[in-house]
Amino acid sequence: MVFKRLLGSLGVGGPTVDTVLDPGAARPGAALTGRIHLRGGSADFDIEHIALELVARVEAEHADGESEGAVAFERFTVGGGFRLAEGAEHTVPFSVPLPWETPVTELYGQDLGIVLGVRTELAVAGARDKGDLDRLTVGPLPAQEAVLEALGQLGFGFRSADLEYGRIGGTGQQLPFYQEIELTPAPQYAHQVNEIELTFLAHPGGVEVVLEADKRGGLFTEGHDALARFTVGHRDARDWSAEVGGWVRQLIDHRASYGTHAAYGHHDAGHHPGHHSGGPGVGTAVAAGAAGLAVGVAGGLVAAEVVDEVGDFFEGDEGDEGDEGDEG
Length: 328
What we know:
The strands form six sheets. A six-stranded antiparallel beta sheet has the order 12-14-15-16-17-18, covered by helices on one side. Strands 4, 5, 6, 10 and 11 form a five-stranded antiparallel beta sheet that branches. Helix 1 crosses helix 2. A hairpin with an 8-residue loop joins strand 14 and strand 15. It has three helices and 21 strands. The N terminus and C terminus are likely disordered. The chain is mostly beta strands. It starts with a strand and ends in a 10-residue tail after the last helix.
């Protein structure tokens, strides 16, 4: 999708910017590619720099409840240092690496409700303008897809996904937020847990898989959360259904020993794990078929809700650009 915007800092007659991402879903740790098309205005302009900023909608918990906001989690300078002549056209191709922990926004072409964007910043003659956001689509890494497929085959269902501001202790987390994928329990575990929350923390050597169970209380016990972490390689060949099934049993049994691949972690103080409402309220079901995990839309409402939320995010974000202190 192409977004066009007159350079607001310079008013009428300024350059225009069109940013085009190459088609297809990007992958965490891989290159994000595309082109930035500039068209000169009614005079010559010195282009000081062109930057790309990766932005995510993130939820934050605080004393008064929850709030949502845009968090910029990476920035790249992709061009600049040239004069754009009056009416001239200039294209800047780019290839930048996505952070390994970039959240997954889709699975098998189905939107999970996670909102990511790429914002283009153009600096001209001492003034900066942050243009419109281009929607960023990110697919799972092979190991992430294998774990999700295994969970689907085991009977777990997709409830929602969101981004939570904060850190998970005991992990190698790099970004200031993490993705939670909330799953309904498989039938054989429905009497033991309310839901399972899944977080992927990818890095160059593999993927940390963090599982959290919201365990039901018994007749004489209160419900509580159990948390465990497992590490897998990017190209591991495993019996994923058996492996992930073992993880789930260990998590729900809350055993003290997890072997060499697992360790306990904890959420940072002040963050209450679990019990999140989910970002856009995606009521999607995950069903296991011959091809593994498939994401469906419940009630025909999900797509409209996601589109509305994305529109609000992108349009609302523009109104905050003037508060950045970019001009001058």
